[in-house]
Design a protein that fits this description.
This protein is of the alpha/beta class. It has one domain: Flavin prenyltransferase-like (Rossmann fold, 3-Layer(aba) Sandwich), CATH 3.40.50. Helices cover about 40% and strands about 15% of the residues. The protein is built from eight helices and six strands, in the order βαβααββααβαβαα. The chain has a six-stranded parallel β-sheet, with helices on both faces. It is globular and about 45 Å long. The termini are far apart. The C terminus is likely disordered.
C-alpha cells in the first residue's frame, strides 16, 4: 500500500543504468516501497548497458508508471513520499528540473518534490561539465537539492565494478537516512596511522 515512506526513483538516459538498478535491488531487499519512472531513452540504456530487461527493472520496484502518465499519484503534491532520487540523471533532466520544465512524469515528480520541500537527490553522470551544467547544478543546490556526482571513492580498495556501483548507490541512500551496508565507511579505517595516511597522499 502506498504511504509516506514511499521513495520515488527516476531513471534517465544518462550512462550508468546499473546505478538505478542497484538502488532498486537494495531498496527492495530493505523493504522500502518504491515508485519507478524511466524515460524512453533510459529504457534503451538499460537494454544496451546491462544484462537486465526493462521488465526486469520494473519488477524490482513496488509500483512503476509510464513516463507520459501525468495522472499518476506522484504527479501531485497531495501524495506523500519520503523524497525522490534520479539515478542516473542526465544533463537534459538536470536542465528540466532546474528550469521547471515538467513535460513528463519524471520531471513533474521532481517538481512536486521540490515544491513540497521533500528530499531530492540527483545522481549525475556526465564528464566533462560545461558552464550550463554547472549553473543548473548551482541553481538546484541553492534550492537544497543534493547534487551527487557518480564519483566513487577508492579508500576501501574496490576490487570490481560492483564495488564502485555500491559506493555511489550507498551515498545516495545515506542522504535519505537509509542504512545499507554497501561499503565500508571511513571510520572502519581508524587503525591507519596519520603518518601512513600522509605518506599515501
Amino acid at each position: 500500500m502506498l504511504n509516506d515512506g514511499t521513495l520515488i526513483i527516476g531513471m534517465t538516459g544518462a550512462s550508468g543504468a546499473i546505478y538505478g538498478i542497484r538502488a532498486l535491488e537494495v531498496l527492495k531487499k530493505l523493504g522500502v516501497e518504491t515508485c519507478l519512472v524511466i524515460t524512453k531513452t533510459g529504457e534503451k540504456i538499460i537494454e544496451y548497458e546491462t544484462k537486465y530487461s526493462v521488465t526486469d527493472v520494473k519488477r524490482l520496484s513496488t509500483y512503476w508508471y509510464d513516463v507520459n502518465n501525468l495522472s499518476a499519484p506522484i504527479a501531485s503534491g497531495s501524495f506523500p513520499t519520503r523524497g525522490m532520487v534520479i539515478i542516473p540523471c542526465s544533463m537534459k533532466t538536470l536542465a528540466g528540473v532546474a528550469n521547471g520544465y515538467s513535460d513528463n512524469l519524471l520531471l513533474r515528480a521532481a517538481d512536486v518534490t521540490l515544491k513540497e520541500g521533500r528530499p531530492l537527490i540527483l545522481v549525475l553522470r556526465e564528464t566533462p561539465l560545461n558552464v550550463i551544467h554547472l549553473r543548473n547544478m548551482l541553481k538546484l543546490a541553492e534550492m537544497n537539492v543534493r547534487i551527487l556526482p557518480a564519483s566513487p571513492s577508492f579508500y576501501y580498495k574496490p576490487r570490481k565494478v560492483d564495488d564502485l556501483v555500491n559506493y555511489v548507490v550507498g551515498k545516495a541512500l545515506e542522504l535519505l537516512g537509509i542504512k545499507h551496508g554497501l561499503y565500508k565507511a571511513w571510520n572502519d579505517f581508524s587503525g591507519v596511522q596519520v603518518d601512513d595516511m600522509e605518506n599515501r597522499q
